[in-house]
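Lab notebook, bench 4. The sequencing result for the construct came back, and we need a structural model before the next group meeting so we can plan mutations. Quick request posted to the team channel:

Model the 3D structure of this chain.
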Amino acid sequence: MRNTRLPANLEAAREEIETHARAYGLDFFPIIYEVLDYRTLYETAAMGGFPTRYPHWRFGMDFDQLMKGHIWQGSTIYEMVINTNPSYAYLLEGNEDVTQKMVMAHVTGHVDFFKHNMWFAHTNRKMLDAMANHATRIQRIIDRIGYDVVEEFIDTCLSLENLIDYHSPYIKRPDSHTPQPLVGEEEPQVAQGLRVERDYMRDYINPPEYLAAQRQKIEEERAKQRRFPEHPQRDILLFLLNYAPLERWQHTVLEIVRDEAYYFAPQGMTKILNEGWASYWHSMIMTRKVATAAEIVAFADLHSGVVATGGGRLNPYKLGLELLRDVEDRWNRGRFGKEYEECDDIAAKRTWDRQLGLGRQKIFEIRKLYNDVTFIDEFLTPEFVIENKLFSFRYNRDTDLYEIASREFQEIKQKLLFRLTNFGQPFIAIEDGNYNNRGEIYLRHRHEGVDLKMDYARDTIRNLHHIWSRPIHLETRIDDKKRLLSFDGSDFTERRID
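Done. Here's the predicted structure in token form:
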């Protein structure tokens, strides 16, 4: 195998960049860089940045899409880094030195974020080894069971991989079983038998075997009243792992899919803040410390491409970077707190400057404690929306074009938060795993104002049935009417329940 490590000139640049980054206060895991040709880089990108994954057609599909984008649309992957200790980062062979320097500065920001952000605290820092182990285990299953059977089951599991509780590593949820009764706090019913008027007749009228039968009947009735699970469960994959009638190899595959879903979850929860943080530091390090006079224009061109907006999409690099800079400026000038918020003088607020110099400290605090939802919820301001010309948009069926829907701050903020909360996916939990006392699953959709996409819902229910092997029921709202969608393995039924 050819050497993919950094050449001498880039190794010197790496040392310089990391020295400046530490001087600014960044603290990151050791970073190992690999320089890859574009094909190898895109192969690695298709597998989530890991060189070894279990065999599955979706990785080939992702690779094909990336290659077509590279060839026909000119899209290029400049950097890729994975959350491990040490962290591995990839550079594209043939890029100019200024590009490689910018990427390395960007990577130091990412790895600092991985190390210190609380939402990554529970992730497996040895995931490179874990991914390789997952690949080996699934390959052994394929060798024993057969590729087509295993691939079909992996397809089913991947279609359900978002049915996890993204906050479970940080919040203690009620377990499926608790010692608390579900039928109130009154004293439990006791089998007393038939009423007798004379004590000496008690054992004749209520023999021990009769009392035992009565006790058994009471226990059965109480069991019917208990809900299983006793508390709604958001981590549906864990419920399936614990209770679904899976073969051993199926349990292993589902466990692997769930483990990898939880590993990647914090990256989706912090996309805007993470990319904003890395962009902030690559800009700071390059413009003030590393880029030479001959490189600064090329860097500006590259940076402008990173933060460019357009095409009807949200650029997380741009939004994260600008919002961090806005927070830094506000805390440097003291534009926060009760006195500032209660000031009614627009001119005074515009020139407000208490020269506190707390901006850098504040953004380091944000880097440690926040995710995208909490970051935008707390720090997005009307002034920022106006200055950055943010707006919400919608699709116009008449013109077949997207158009501006609103420039109102509250509507823009709500749409952003709605899109980011739970990744914009519906909240679904298992309410009952023994519905109708027949071992059927009853799911409840927490309606947030947007109806389910019914084709997605039906596919999800069908795949849940594939694993649970008994009927699945989903309670939701359609056109403000409560509905129950059911699947018995062959047919879907829908009925109104309110």
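The beta strands are 31-36, 79-81, 87-92, 392-396, 401-406, 427-435, 440-446, 472-478, 481-487, 492-496.
Will bring this to the meeting.
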